[in-house]
Predict the 3D structure of the following.
Amino acid sequence: MAEKLLETIMAVKRIEIAKRIKGSLMENEDWWYLCYETSTGEAWIEHEWDHMDAYNVGKAGDRGKSRHDLDEWISAKNRGYENIEAALSEAKGK
């Protein structure tokens, strides 16, 4: 008997709440997003970055993502916290 594998696909809305571009060649970029999972209502902050050494173009840069608790982010008044309320309303379709 063949078993059916059911997979739930989560729909996550990502809304940019802040960004920072630094360096004379704009070589360091950071973005912060409010992420909202539509079926559960879970929300969090995602920080994504892409940093490179402008003087060593052939070398791989530092690139990545990290996830942060929404309430802690707001309490600490981290980058973009003042945009979270509007982004959350947009994510919820209000």
About this structure: The first strand starts at residue 12 and ends at 22. Strands lie at 12-22, 28-37, 43-51, 62-69. The chain has a mean pLDDT of 87.
